[in-house]
Design goal:
It is globular, with a radius of gyration of 20 Å. The protein folds into 2 domains: 204 residues, inorganic pyrophosphatase (n-terminal core) (Alpha-Beta Complex); 119 residues, Diaminopimelate Epimerase, Chain A, domain 1 (Roll), CATH 3.10.310. The strands form 2 sheets. Strands 3-2-1-4-5-6 form a 6-stranded parallel sheet. By secondary structure, it is of the alpha/beta class.
Length: 333
């Protein structure tokens, strides 16, 4: 849990700032998107000049929570323009849902050069100590829960819109309350958000009944690569660059596809290998609890949680698949 002292430091830092830049990790998920918007709306209501900078395009199914288009680094503004303060001059940077250099891509260089105070709000075990002040709670199922605690501690208003964004953050990081991290704290927090105005049924439809046809075709291509190993306890799947070309899907369309194979009763651990244009392989790992996949990801500079983690491996895909197979075999034995 986060101490009142740390919350007080965070509130003081926000209160003494006027121009705030809010960002999150590349390839943003629901927790990242929800937290970014919640902090933006909160700071705006407090009279701050708050701006959002995303490090990757926002997946289509999360765009509804953004009131206006957020700037994307590399698309709307270059790293050079960011360093030249074309987006603005900031006296505070807030990073949500990550505390790792490796997840910030080109923004990491800006962060090292700009020399401004940094507030980190995160729930991951992996930590590079990016913040001058950090609100870290690895026991929280989602960063959205930490932000809810911050707003309540500070007495800052939680509007219906903020309640919706935090509900998206919490519900998506718990697999719509299916993952093992779904505890009583999750249900209590979501109950508060529902009382404020969040509507779960409408949010579920926007999040999970909103696949594009290309994304559905990409999922089909992925499922056709499914292999079971180690007495059917380990599932391996991959997506190649040619699959993106053939289906018309985008990289962000891969989010949560790895979870499909966990419908198989015997599967305890899974990996999804995604070929990137630079030759690296993005490896996403999931576990039902038998294996700490964060320990595997950490061997390659990645990280996450015990039951959900990721890392980059050198190509080709078959090489990456063999490396992970060997490590999972060690863990399961």
């Amino acid at each position: 849990m986060i101490s009142n002292t740390d919350f007080e430091k965070a509130v003081k830092l926000v209160n003494t700032s006027s121009n705030v830049l809010i960002t999150t990790h590349s390839r943003p998920d629901g927790d990242a998107c929800g937290c970014v918007v919640a902090m933006h709306d909160t700071l705006t209501a407090l009279g701050k000049n708050a701006k959002i900078l995303m490090l990757s395009p926002i997946p289509q199914w999360y765009q509804f929570i953004f009131a206006q288009k957020a700037s994307v680094l590399g698309e709307d503004i270059s790293s050079e323009q960011l360093r030249a303060e074309r987006l603005g001059e900031f006296d505070l940077i807030i990073i949500v849902d990550t505390n790792s250099h490796s997840q910030l891509d080109e923004f990491d260089e800006y962060l090292k050069q700009v020399g401004k105070p940094v507030l980190v709000i995160d729930h991951h075990v992996t930590s590079d100590g990016l913040g001058d002040i950090e609100l870290i709670d690895s026991a929280a199922a989602a960063t959205g829960l930490i932000i809810l605690d911050l707003l309540k501690f500070a007495g800052w208003p939680v509007t219906k819109r903020i309640a919706e964004t935090l509900f998206v953050a919490i519900s998506t990081d718990t697999g719509w309350f299916q993952f093992r991290n779904t505890d009583s704290r999750v249900y209590r927090g979501c109950a508060e958000l529902i009382e404020i105005g969040a509507e779960p049924v409408k949010l579920y439809e926007k999040l999970y009944k909103n696949f594009s046809y290309p994304r559905f075709k990409l999922m089909t291509a992925m499922l056709n690569t499914l292999e079971l190993h180690l007495d059917d306890q380990y599932a391996s799947q991959h997506i190649l660059l040619s699959d993106f070309d053939r289906t018309g899907a985008m990289y962000e369309d891969t989010e949560n596809l790895i979870n499909e194979c966990h419908r198989i009763k015997t599967v305890k651990v899974s990996a999804l290998f995604i070929q990137l244009k630079d030759g690296r392989i993005r490896c996403s790992l999931r576990s039902k609890g038998a294996v700490n996949v964060n320990e595997i990801a950490a061997k390659f500079g990645g990280g996450g949680h015990k039951m959900a983690a990721g890392a980059y491996l050198p190509g080709p895909v078959e090489n990456a698949k063999q490396i992970i197979l060997d490590l999972v075999a060690e863990k399961l034995s």
